[in-house]
Structure formats: C-alpha cells, structure tokens
Amino acid sequence: MSTSDVTTTPAAPVAEAAPPGVRLRLEDAALGRPGAPVLHGLDLEVTSGDILTVVGPSGCGKSTLLRTLAGLLPPLGGRVSQDGAPITRPHADRALIFQEDALLPWRTLRANVELPLAIRGVPRAERRGRAEVWLERVGLAEHSGRLPHRVSGGQRQRAQLARALVGEPRAVLMDEPFGALDAQTRAGMQGLLVEVLRGTRATVVFVTHDVDEALFLGDRVVLLGGGAQGGGRVLDIPHPRERAAHDAAATVALRRQVLESLGM
Amino acid sequence: MNAPAPTVRPRPAPEAPGGPAAAPRPLLRRPWARYTLRAGSLLAALGLWQLLTALDVNLWLRFAQFPSATDVVREFADRLGTGAYWQDLTDSLSRILTGFALAAVLGVSVGTAIARSPLVSDLLGPVLEVCRPIPAIALVPVAILMFPSNEQGIVFITFTAAFFPVMVSTRHAVRALAPVWEEAVLTMGGGRGRVLVSVVLPGALPGILGGLSVGIGVSWICVISAEMISGAYGVGYRTWQDYTIVDYPGVFVGMTTIGVLGWLTSTAVELAGRRLTQWLPRTETTGRAATTGRTATTGRSGATGRSAPVRKEAVAP
After folding, report:
1. Nearest to A100 among B180, B185, B311 (CB)
2. pLDDT (tens digit per residue) in A201-242
3. ipTM of this complex prediction, to 2 decimal places
4. Do A92 and B188 touch (CB under 8 A)?
C-alpha cells in the first residue's frame, strides 16, 4: 500500500492557533520520500506529556511519520511543527529511538549515553555523572563499561532509552523499540519505559505493530493505514493503561475495537 | 605429548560454568604450539634451501650456482657489522614511512570526501580512476620529470602505490556505513563535523585498515623497485648493485632484508589496526583478537573465560 488517506479526528476541537499543551502537530501533512508519498492529509496533535502510540501494519507509514517528526525527512506538504515552530531538521530536543541497534558499536554503553551531552558541549565530569544516573535508572549500572555487542539485545535497548532521555528532550520518538525483543524482555521493557517516563515530562510518540503494546503504553492510540476503508484514523482512547490495569473486560473490548478498525 | 594438560587449569572456572571456553583447546591451537609451528615453517624452508644448494641439485630447476643458506647467513652477518647496511635500511624505511603516511592521510581524506559528496565524486572520481590502473613503478619518468630530487620521486612513487588501495577501501567502507548511526547522531543535534568524527571515521576504520594493510605491502614493492631504477642508496639500490657485480649472496641479503622489513611493517599495521578496532565483535576461534578486548587486560586465559558467557548472551535477542 503506497498511499492511504488518513483523516484524523482530533480529540478536542482545534483552535486556529496551536493551543498551549500541544507539543507536536501535523496539519494536512503529506509524508514520504519525494516521489513516493506514503501518507497525506494527516492531521495529528500530541499533547505535551502524553504518550501517543501509533499502531498499524507494516508499510503503513509509521516509521515515515516518526522520521518526519524527528526532522530526518522533510514533509512533502502541509505543516509539521513542535511547539508551533516548523520542524525542518533534526534537533536534540526530539530524541529518536530506533528498532535496530543504533548504539555506536565502538563506544561503551556509558560513552554512548554520554554522546548527546558531549555533542551539546556538557563538561566531561558533568556528563559522566548524568550518564551514570540514567544508566542506573535503566538498570545498566554494572554494564556501563561494556561494548554494545557484549550485552544482550534488551540491554542495548535500555542503553538506547538512557541515551535518548539523558539530554532531557521535550519529545521522544520511538520506532518499534522493542520489536526485536522476546516476549518476556519486551514486557519488562514496557514496564521500565512507563516507570522511567514518569520521572520526565517528555512527550512520547511510540510506534508499534503490536496492538497490546499500543494499548498498554498509550494515553492515546492512533491507527494508521489498514482497514477495509483503506484509511487510517485516530482512535481516541483516553488512558488505556489505567483501564487495562483495572478492568480486563474493558481491555478486551478496546482490543477488539482496534483490531476491527485495522480490518483484522 | 600430554604434558600441556595442567596449563589448562588456571582458567577461572566460576566465570564460565560449562561455557564453551571450558573445553580444552586442540593441541595445535594452543599458543606455544602455534609459535612452534610458525618457527618450524620458516626453518623448514631454510633447510630445504640449504639442502638443494648443498647437493647442487640440477634437475629442471638449477641450484648449482645458487648461494646456499649458510653463504647468505655468513654474508648477512658481515653486512650487519657495516654502517652502509644500516644506512640503506634507514633510507628505505624513511622513504616508505613518509610515502605511506602521506598515502594514509590523503587516501582516507579523499576516499571519505568522494563517498560523502557527489560533487567531489564527480570532480575527482574520473581523474583518479584513470590514474588508478597505472602501476606506480611506471610513474618513474613522471617522478623524474616533476621532482627536483630522486628522493622526492621515490617517496612520490611509494605514496602513489599505497594511496589507491587506501582511498578505494575508505570509499567503500564509508559508503557501506549503516545510516542508522548517522541518523542517531543527527537526532542528538550533531552536525556534519560531529558525524564525521563520531560516526564516519570510526565506523569505516575496519575497512580503512584493510586498505592500509594492502597499501603498506604495495609500498614496499614500489619503494624497492624505485630504488633499483633511480635511487641512490636504500635496500633496493644495494640489492641491484650487488647483482650488477654478481655478488649473489649480497642479493639474497637484500631480498631477505626486504622480506623481514615488509613483514615487520605490515605486522605493525595489523597490530595497530587490531588495537584500534577492539570493539569489533570477533569469534572465539580468532583467539587472540577476542581476548584483546578492553576488559581483558588481565591475561589470556582469564579473558577468554570471561568473554565466553557474554558472547553467549549477545546471541540472545
């Protein structure tokens, strides 16, 4: 599926100017590589401090959406902005976590986590300290001196998480970060993510193809692509996480709703 | 031949309970056995040489006029005592090191620029591709025309010989880099310079080292040939001089010197390379490489024991 219409229904009526509290915003955006648009007519808002999960089948443009938000891929049309300012290039204020192993293999975990701070010119002693705090927080304190290939895949993703959050970005974009992990590790990482994010005010866009993961992590869930109607839409699910914790029946209903919307 | 068995014991058992490193290595894979084999290989070659020349073997290949290994050793011992030998040696070494250092710096710079910039690629690519097939030694006339002294000409030829392997391997290595590393640094707010220093150069280093390794070998071939043709002093010059006065043992001293120097310099390049790329995941069978990891300064067997369980872990998703 190369193109799919995405008409989204925002959670609240949108004022002309971006209301305070909207961190990331797409307005009538067309996304993709030049000559190969994947998404168009996309309207989306991510509220400050929210976790927005994006779910959809492979090839629906989830990664494209994230890369555009990161500033790695310019939008083909429409407006893409952070706090009202158009996103034109990558910025340290929007950290990106990749599905693949994006740690620099020649740097130890600690040196990888220090990198964003080093780029910003933070003095050595301070960045060492801040990296240690984050490595501790993601449970890698004892492995900080190891090279990425000397630790497990789950530990590498923990290190990526620490590296993304150490610079205290206002937005964190996550591209199926747990997609390559086994079920048990994945569940542990989801718990860790929720726990770690609680301490920050980061706005998160989390892309996944796993409906359960999307429901567990998301304050709101967006469906992209798929479905008989061939279009994606925002399924506005307020705080599914709490609900999931309290009410198994509600989770089942939500899950069915999502799967039906995806045409599965 | 079961004497070495106790040497397996010092490996720390608690580190690798039942790990793959716990199995004793086959006899011929143990360090002392490997060094013995290597020395034996050299000695056997020398022995064969001595045998063929001492018996004046004259079948299809003729060894009657061939200097024997002992002749050459005797000549070698004589020459080692002369200042001229060491003068030639340092002349050749300084030429090759200068040429090779220039080739390393320029080869990596140009290779990176071509790989990263379509403009540079279009501007320099065609010229370099036309020059590349020309054997460096065929540039002797060019060197004689261009450079005021022979010395610079020889360095130029040595440089050209090493430049192309380094440039080409750098170009390939830089183009083959995983884009995800660069994107990661970009999303941390890094600019072009940061990407170059933190991603491109370290990431391309393993490939670059391959080029340097080839380059130093080709450099030796060319520095010796250039000295033979146009040099004043140097190992190549001396070897050719000995040939013109029919001093065959002297020729063999020259050849041996070239061989040993070439071996030493390429080993130095290899070792430096291994040191710089300790981060590369290596398999257990490459033994030494796997144990020179940053955590493994405590010794060989201990390091192997420690790395084994980690490697197992790394295989898991």
Report:
1. B180
2. 788 888 888 877 787 787 888 887 644 333 455 566 666 555
3. 0.81
4. yes
